[in-house]
Write a structure and sequence with these properties.
heterodimer, A: alpha/beta, Rossmann fold, four-stranded antiparallel β-sheet, 8 helices, 10 strands, about 30% strand, B: alpha+beta, ten-stranded mixed β-sheet, 13 helices, elongated
């Protein structure tokens, strides 16, 4: 099991109020899984994603990543996990606007301490992988939404992380671009990458292997698509 | 993330905000340039004074009366006292010094110049280290003959005749009690203490005997003394003082000052003034540093989203802190370098206006470089720390 949470709880303080975003989640994912997390806004799905991605810390419960208890890790090691174990793809692409697509893809490798020459090669290779190598030297504002998201995916996979996390990756895209993105995820998943994506679109979720549904901070449904389809 | 990466990334982001970076640097530039200009002018002024003093030659003792004491006609210094001082075993040479002022008509007859006529002897040239350019200084024979001769400075010669080779020419000196024609026997190079801040009057030398004839007075203002053994100069000073008191049958009415000590005190005063004004300039440097901190805080706020992205990609707090710290250091370092260059040339520009050659000392420039980098660290640490502590999820919401 690559990801396992036990009774995971996340509470936020909003002034005088304590908001319980996650109220005891038990979730497992195996290596090579392709999971969609669905739910209405405020259901806790994004919080779940952030905790899995080690962008956020949990309040109580356990989170095991590759069998290691992540709830006890902090600071530098969390940054290292984000750098080497996770690839993030966001709805808003989150590319740095002032540098080229290729330089954006190089960023995770800079923090991993990869040499300049190898960075450039690996960045071009990753851009090639998502079919956008010819736009390598363009800045994000010279790219379409779908192209930006492909650059973001190239950046997410460039350190070859075992897990790819995508938060509404098709949310800002037209359906044709969204389809291209989903095809990339499917092919990466076939190569063995564990892909977890948050979406509120059922059509998108149906392109994965498994749909997990969140409601009011609880995991209320876990269904296997392949089983449903077959 | 290594240093070169941070450096390039910092330069890139500073370049994107060119105008802002430049304005932020301006505070540092002005501060550093002001400090360099002021210290170099101050040190230059000190150096020029020391240089002129050292040109005065071997500095010894200066004997004068204590004018704040009740003095009688019996107490005044005369040539007899000078001869008495000469008898002290540690005295190598003496030169009397008596001063009277008068006027002289210049080449352009409608203009006159004030001159101080100093009556002295042949030793004065050595005692005060005069730089004779044309002719000669006074000789013992001039004193013996009460000769109507004069040694003037080159500047005055130019004003009088338009040239300096004026030996044998006559100068008509006008005193309150009449006129006297004096033959020019020598021209010396005046000390270059003149500047925009103060003008030295022309000084001309005549035999003390001639001086006494003109003024009808035996009074000497000073007696300059060269000592043979400098190590016992303080003791010699005291003994001369006693000698004079004994011969005048009086007490504590004569000053015997060590001129070397006077230079030290002048240096001390100049040093303090330079230090004080530099401190004032350093305040502007401090204000510039606060400007850097201010702009770095703005930068961190503006780039919160970027910080979120970088953190999501695996940047540690240390990486982020370093990135912003390097930016602050580059701002102050570039500002510092420009400031040093401007201060250096500004010092020479200002120096040429006020007539002082500035002295830019390497240690003080190194100190400034150190200070400006330290400023980057001091004023960069807080904003960089603020950036480092940002919560990645919170930061990513600032898209």
């Amino acid at each position: 099991m690559i990801i396992e949470t036990q009774n995971l709880v996340k509470t936020y303080r909003l002034g005088r109020y304590e908001v319980r975003a996650l109220r005891g989640i038990n979730f497992q994912a195996n290596m090579g899984d392709f999971v969609a997390i669905m739910g209405a806004s405020g259901s806790g799905k994004s919080t779940m994603m952030n905790i899995i991605g080690c962008l956020d810390t949990l309040s109580s419960g356990k989170y095991y990543l590759e069998g290691k208890d992540v709830s006890k890790i902090e600071g530098k090691q969390l940054a290292a996990i984000r750098n080497k174990k996770m690839g993030f793809v966001f709805q808003t692409f989150n590319l740095l606007p002032t540098i080229s697509a290729e330089k954006n893809v190089e960023l995770p490798m800079i923090y991993a301490g990869v040499s300049k020459r190898r960075r450039k090669m690996a960045a071009l290779e990753a851009l090639e992988r998502v079919g956008i190598a010819e736009r390598a030297h363009h800045k994000p504002n010279e790219l379409s939404g779908g192209q930006k998201q492909r650059v973001a995916i190239a950046r997410a996979l460039v350190n070859k992380p075992p897990i790819l996390l995508a938060d509404e990756p098709t949310g800002n895209l037209d359906s044709a671009s969204g389809d291209i993105i989903m095809e990339i995820f499917q092919s990466l998943n076939k190569e063995g990458v564990t892909v977890i994506l948050v979406t509120h679109e059922r059509e998108i979720a149906l392109k994965t292997d498994r749909i997990v549904t969140f409601k009011d901070g609880l995991l209320i449904n876990d269904e296997k698509i392949k089983a449903l389809n077959s | 993330m290594n240093f070169i990466e941070s450096f390039i990334s910092a330069l890139t982001s500073l370049f994107i905000n060119k105008m802002r970076s430049l304005l932020t640097m301006l505070g540092i530039i002005i501060g550093i340039a002001a400090v360099i200009m002021i210290t170099s002018i101050g040190q230059g002024f000190q150096a020029s004074i020391n240089n002129e003093f050292s040109r005065m030659g071997a500095l010894g003792l200066q004997v004068s009366m204590k004018y704040d004491e009740e003095l009688t006609a019996h107490d005044i210094l005369t040539l007899a006292d000078a001869e008495l001082i000469r008898t002290h075993p540690n005295v190598a040479d003496i030169a009397p010094y008596a001063l009277i002022n008068g006027k002289v008509r210049l080449k352009n007859p409608s203009e006159t110049a004030n001159i101080y006529y100093i009556g002295t002897n042949e030793a004065f040239s050595n005692v005060q280290g005069l730089d004779i350019k044309e002719g000669r200084f006074l000789l013992p024979a001039d004193l013996d003959n009460t000769a109507s001769v004069i040694v003037i400075d080159a500047n005055l010669a130019k004003k009088l005749f338009g040239r300096t080779d004026v030996i044998g020419n006559t100068l008509s000196a006008a005193f309150s009690f009449g006129n006297l024609d004096l033959t020019i026997i020598g021209v010396y190079n005046a000390l270059n203490l003149n500047s925009a801040m103060f003008q030295m009057p022309a000084i001309a030398y005549i035999p003390i005997t001639t001086w006494q004839k003109i003024s009808g007075s035996e009074y000497l203002e000073n007696i300059f003394v060269n000592v043979a053994d400098k190590s016992s100069i303080e003791r010699t000073a005291m003994e001369i003082s006693k000698l004079l008191s004994l011969s005048h049958a009086t007490e504590n009415k004569y000053n015997v000052e060590n001129l070397l000590q006077q230079i030290d005190s002048i240096n001390n005063v100049l040093g303090s003034i330079t230090a004080f004004v530099s401190l004032v300039a350093a305040i502007s440097l401090f204000v510039g540093g606060i400007g850097v901190m201010n702009i770095m805080l703005v930068t961190v706020t503006e780039r919160t989203y970027e910080i979120g992205i970088r953190k999501s990609l695996g940047a540690t707090n240390g990486n982020i802190r370093f990135q912003f710290l390097v930016e602050a250091i580059i701002l102050t370092a570039i500002g510092g370098i420009i400031g040093i260059i401007l201060g250096y040339y500004g010092g020479f520009a200002l120096g040429s206006i006020i007539g002082i050659t500035p002295v830019v000392s390497v240690p003080s420039v190194l100190l400034i470089v150190f200070i400006s980098s330290a400023l980057g660290i001091i004023f960069g640490v807080y904003p960089a720390g603020k950036a480092a502590k940002l919560d990645p999820i919170e930061a990513l919401r600032h898209a």
